[in-house]
## 1
Amino acid sequence: MTSRGGARSPLGSWFLGPHAENGEVLEKLALSVVRDYAGWRADFHPADPRAIPWGDKHSPAYAQGIGSLEKNLGHLLAELKHGTPSFSQRYMGHMIGDQTLAGQLGYFAGMLHNPNNISSEVAQSTTRLEREVTRDLARMIGYCLDGAWGHLTSGGTIANFEALWMAHATMGFPVAAACAATELGVALNIELPDRSHAPLASLGLFDLLNIRNSAALDLMQALRESAAGPGLRDALEKHSLATAGYQVHAETVSRHFGHRAQPAVVLVPATAHYSWEKIVRALGIGARQLVFVPVDERCRMDPDGLWGTVKKLADARTPIIACVSVCGSTEESAMDRLDLLCDVRARAERELGVTFHMHSDACYGGYAAAVTWDSSGRRKTAEQIRATAGIDWPSDEWQKAMVALARADSVSIDPHKLGFVPYPAGALVVRDRRARDLVATDPPYLLPSTQSRSMEDLIAGRFSFEGTRPGAAAAGVWLSHRVLPLDERGYGHLIEQTVVGARRLYAALKEADISPTAIVTLPEPDLNIVCFFLYDPRMQSLAEINELNELVYGEMSQRSAGDEPPYIVSRTRLRAPMYHGAAVPLLETLSEDLAEQWQAGEAGGLVVLRSTVMDPFLARKELADVHVTGFVGAIASATKRVARKGSVFQEH
């Protein structure tokens, strides 16, 4: 495989390969890991008596135990072969692909040592590796490393949970601080969203709930300096939501300000991951406080829709905890114009005096930021990226949105998605490390002997929702980052190649003729997820279209009975009214009646087939000629099988 300038691409050395082409490499290096680990054990106080004497290894009981292990391991290996063949170029289903050799070996090595990254006391090495990993991610995002902080999680749901947890705590801090300052007789000023300053005691409840994160955290520092001592902690806890709880906190705030605040909301696009509803439920914010912002025809949050939503909420004096922007949606890999959304927030601060936490849910697409960096640490323009990719991608707007990650207050990224490392490995990175203090808990056995920042960074369990976290995940991500740098030499090239393959698939589907059925593609993807649906002109309803696509999905999913399908896809459902901006223009090209059915909320939305192209080797023309052509052929064959078996076709 060649890359820019005619040089050979390093891709072949990064993966085991769909046919285990690098099997001997994995075997050799895995064996070296086992030998190194066994040697480490053997060399640790070698004079100590043996726990397993040589005689025991020749006993019948020992032989029986090892025999049972071998037998059941064989059963396990056989069972695992019934799993998802995500390593194959024939798998184009969910967001799971092959892992890098580095990720596999790093995780394997870390797993043998079995560290728990709750604290450096039980994970001396891997807590340091985790700190390096999150600094890698912060650098890729564009954060200032002196202020940023992050840690690994089990996945995106927990990373997003923690982001909103911190956002909620930061939003509520000025209220607690104002109450505590009054009680302690401390007078302080605070910066308002429009950059003016006012006495803390002069602000009403709605104003205090609209303080920028940096100003709220500056206030925390100023309050500590002005009223140090146990009295400050007691006063803050008395008025803190985290310690008082919702019922007591609401009563306390109502007594202090004479009224309660309107229930605060969280803004998300229609493309937001389903975990956000779980998160607002778990945090006690409430599912009804999740406000969906319209998306445009490319499934991106509409900046004008965001402004209209913010303006309406400001007029109603409704606080906004956070706005969640999506960097790589799970259905379509759509990239919100984060740059424009941040501009909306800046406008709201100037004109409306309101603000909110800006979070980027980049669990899927975050690693694509590596595409924007060259090997010397400089940002690449969209034109420079297009020159190396060899396709008309990305757009200038895409590059601006990706660079704008540096403007987000927090970013969640999943290394176990486009980082191509084993599960579980999510990550949260925050721009201002001080926010973690607002959610910290301090169990005595985790407190460092010295409260230096470097020591605090090695005790992530104080600030994370999860306590136990596998150090193996940190080892896997760390080694993969060292082999594949987070720039054009490594992950940038890798993700670029997946997009090349996805664009080839998209073009083939768009041009395919499987008449009388038509393949209708959604807009060209921002990353590497291709969505489309099948439509027959004889169909007159969304229900019929949905049935056809569900039947074809059944033929091409792992749920299908009988033989393994030649190619595997997934599917999703675009729901009204959240996807109105994307679905209506698409359906109008087919039939005005179908668009009207959508607007009337019929059929529960639109079922679309979804192909996630995580295999970078499909960028090779010879492989694309086989598998892209084969995929389109499999779609055509599945459609014909559905017709023969009897389906909606027979009704016309």
Note: The chain has a mean pLDDT of 91.
## 2
Amino acid sequence: MHRLPGNLQTNRRLSQWLAIHPEGRVTVTPGKVELGQGILTTLSQIAAEELEVDLARIEARPAATPDSPDEGVTSGSLSTQDSGGALRHACAAARAIFLGVVAQRVGVPVETIRIEDGRFIGPAGEIGSYWALADQALLECEAPAEVKPRAPGERRVAGRSVPRIDLPDKVFGVARYVHDLRLPGMLHGRMVRPPARGARLFALREGPLPGDAQVVRDGSFLAVLADTEWDAEAAAARLAARAEWAAADTLPEQAVLADWLREAAARGERSPVASRTDPAPPVARTLSRSFHRPYLAHASIAPSCAVARWEGERVEVFTHSQGPYNLRADLAKVLRCDPALLTVRHREGAGCYGHNGADDVALDAVLAARAAPGRPVRMLWSRTEELGWSPFSPAMLVDIEADLDAAGDLAGWRSHIVSNGHSSRPGRDPEPTLLSASMLAAPFPVKPSINPAMAAGGGAPRNGVPLYRIPAMRVETTRLLEMPIRTSALRGLGATLNIWSIESIMDEAAALAGADPLDYRLRHLEDARAAAVLRRVAELAGWAGRGRREGFGMGLGFARYKNTGAYAAVIAEVEALERVFCRRLWIAGDVGEAVNPDGVLNQLEGGAIHGASVALLEEVRFDRRSITSDHWEGYPILRFSEVPQVELALIDRPEEPFLGAGEASMAPAIAAIAGGITEALGIRPRQLPFTPENLARA
């Protein structure tokens, strides 16, 4: 069977991707979802370009099972690459099919027909349109292997900045989010969570509840339903006071978390990630350094929410899950039913790069709705649940030994990356991974999180292999099978630690060699596109002519995301007085073809600001039983007043394949901030976040 681009390979029928309507509209139905990253705008541009119609004619519908193609999870900065590539091919095929039919009917060569906003113009004038052929079922076929997308020089819509199609509703307060969904007869649900990880509900005292609130219990799964949110909130509070739990200490001591990681790794097995044994010059010096980061939360601004309804044997779910088909698979496992009985519809929620509570709250809504057949149930998590019970990005540790030759250049590299797995997303294991599945009377086990294969970018070892030229190298990882806190994917996965640690070694080696950090990187790079973004960001920030001010410093960070994705170089200016602030960021990026350049710049800027927040503030805190940073004061994120001034440059390469932008700049920003701290204070940070307490330890 011929190979098709992107996710068209596994969703081969053209009608899965688009429909053309007689009234002059085009519907595209990608399986990727809008998370606030603007992907539906980008995909609409690609469709409009290939069909040669006005962008206003394109309607991008949210993903839903079973109508949309199954594109897995919207993650990994792969949406434009995998979905955009598929949609470009599908729309180019559709254009060729329609033109072929018209040419045959009219008797003119296909190459003599041009398209003007969906109308077909032949040598003697208009000869038809998409709309006139819309009822002919021409797209009920498999995509052909060979089609000819429009050449870069012909593009008029793709490659141009256009306004995001999802923003007007959000700006003007239209009810667009799943949180806003209101259905007739809807009940409101709230969960009652245990006081500790792994706690078991063994008693529940009876008593009155507000209004008509009802209790839903299945083992240690405890929820309330009520006609109003206020009654649901009050009922949940009363129920929590009546619940008795069996709990025990299950979490490590936070103060010695790095030691716990090292001890747990000693009980595990090392797995090779990459190795190289090219001839190397004699070693003059070896740098041995360790870097550590804590657990990180997604900290979505709005808590997770879902709406579910049971009608007989069928269940309908509205969710902001990143993978509707994957969620459907796990819901079916919990319910022990045929997935075809479940319909999962995507509705936008609070932005989240990674696996937060969206999937978990969907199961909560479904289990609660089972107790109220025929009535929709809106389940909304609290802030405490969102910050305390969503999956976290795992704490990590990396030990690095870098050999330097007599000239100070890198001669060897050995690193060991320690972490829990970085994915417990639903749909990928024979048993469900959703939170409440482990709390039922017949519970499912909580298994250790996995790491994606390195061919897919890896998890803990993502970007753990330096892109720089190093003759001898050995990179290993240990995936911890002890998992006291449930972990999963957060923007960048292991790259946030690995890129920062690699770039820190590069800075230290450059200083020992008496070289400028930029020049030192360039002399170790063989990738011309990597060198180009470094030179561009240096030009943007005035790196060569930078001055020095007391308490201020500038640092540089670079990476190619997953070593196969987008390139990003970041320079940060930090102010390091009573605490560290990032005051300015300069970013240069290369994502290959940029379909919506403004959208790409937004992603690079947002990723770097996210990186600044992680670098300076973020850390999940816990005691021996529970998460204690379950409120904004306990888990601070960057405030608007603390957001740095950002300046960006994009190296557009329209002839190159798409490379996603969503995660490329985050880790380089962390590395750049660390470098700025070193220039300002003379301290090389070894532990995230870069708080005064952690810097004092350094």
Note: The CA atoms of residues 541 and 586 lie 6 Å apart.
